Amino acid sequence: MITKQLTKLLLASTLLLGFAAQAAVIKSMRFWQSPESTRVVFDLTSPVEHELSVLKNPDRIVVDIPDSRVTVDLSQLEIKSDLVKRVRQSKPPKEGVLRLVLDLTKSAEPNSFSLKPYQEYSDRLVIDLVDKKRKVIKPPVVDGSSNRDIIVAIDAGHGGEDPGARGPTGQKEKHITLELAKELARQINSVNGLKAVLTRETDFYLSLRKRTAIARQHRADLFVSIHADSFKNSRARGASVWILSTRGARSELARWLRKQETESELLGGVDTNLDLSVYEKPVAQVILDLQMEHSIQASLTLGEKVHNEMARVAPKMHKKHVEEAGFVVLKNPDIPSILVESGFISNPQEERLLKTSDYRRKLASAVKEGVIDYFKSHAPDGTKFANLYRKNVYHVKRGDSLIKVARRFNTSVSKLKQANKLTSNMVRIGQKLVIPSS
Ligand SMILES: [Zn+2]
């Protein structure tokens, strides 16, 4: 009965050369929930082959694993998932094959792959279940007012099956980054005119491109990725701030232009800040080039401010200046982006510091101060920050008087005099007048 309804799926599996005789054991099962998918992880004693089938009425996924057995008590699983209701063992299709059934709450599209042992993890079989119905791309919310918040995308590095670096006492980078990102978001949101958006708020895996895509979807004005360093020498220490290298930028430009021929979120997509699809390729290249140059310059200016603020609270900075690398997560031609390495988790003292909420608060505050400082002088048009902090300066021309200038900028003579600390109504040609914000 079942076989007739089976939808065979591609299986990426490892051949068990030389290991075939020994049955693999599924010793535990873990679940990660992201906003649109569930990741199911089987922890194994050795790599396995597997076959997936999708069944309907009721929705379920059948996993067949030859030469395997399961030692975990399936009735006692802690299932953190919107999609998986329960996991049970079912009658094997033939001798020696382990058949597991994932009963689903609704239909989901599976994608599976194997992972090699890493840190404390052994061989793993991963099944990603994507809730297709929930994967609706929301149209970007454009705040058309001329007083919008500046959007700061905050990206907690790693997550889920990707723990990142690990400290001497076992502290995982993915947890440090999430705590720090949440603290930074809280502090950013407490500033009038700034609004934080987190790429992830819980413990799940996000690809690097997905992280920047989320930022772009929210029309972020700034992207801050949070990480913690590690090195084989445990004495290495110090926080650092990174921006995209020129080389990384160049290869990214080439990638965007290649993508221009296909669909892309930047070049003409729905949620784009920069629609290049209307231009001929050479023109698009020049525009993108300028945009990237601007983005890197902005990242550097911001990065320096954040670096200087962090130097006040961190026991040590790893380098004297902002550093450059080709990190994928920084490859945003349209969003100034920095990566903050909060310290070396591999260093016992810094691991201890990063574990304390007090230190994380100080570090987050330093990053926030750098962001505020940057946007006070570089607020995008139409933002609350621009209205609050941008000082419009007018150069007095021949024939100008204070009354004329006041009228032109919709202000009063007394406000002009106050803003410029003027004692008389006299102005001279070339004089700089600060125009008070209305
Ligand atoms: Zn990292």
UniProtKB/TrEMBL annotation:
Annotated Gene Ontology cellular component terms: outer membrane-bounded periplasmic space
Broad class of the protein's primary localization: periplasm
Similarity remark: Belongs to the N-acetylmuramoyl-L-alanine amidase 3 family.
GO terms, biological process: cell wall organization; peptidoglycan catabolic process
Descriptive protein name: N-acetylmuramoyl-L-alanine amidase AmiC
InterPro entries per record: AMIN_dom, LysM, LysM_dom_sf, MurNAc-LAA_cat, N-acetylmuramoyl_amidase_3
Keyword Cell wall biogenesis/degradation: yes
EC identifiers of the protein: 3.5.1.28
Pfam families reported for this sequence: Amidase_3 (PF01520), AMIN (PF11741), LysM (PF01476)
Reaction(s) catalysed (UniProt annotation): Hydrolyzes the link between N-acetylmuramoyl residues and L-amino acid residues in certain cell-wall glycopeptides
MF GO annotations: N-acetylmuramoyl-L-alanine amidase activity
Annotated coiled-coil segments of the chain: none
Enzyme class: hydrolase
Domain LysM span(s) in chain numbering: 392-435
Family annotation (CDD domains): MurNAc-LAA (cd02696)
Signal peptide start-end: 1-23
Keyword Cell wall biogenesis/degradation attributed: yes
Protein's cellular compartments: Periplasm
Gene3D superfamilies, sorted: 2.60.40.3500, LysM domain, Zn-dependent exopeptidases
Keyword entries, A-Z: Cell wall biogenesis/degradation, Hydrolase, Periplasm, Signal
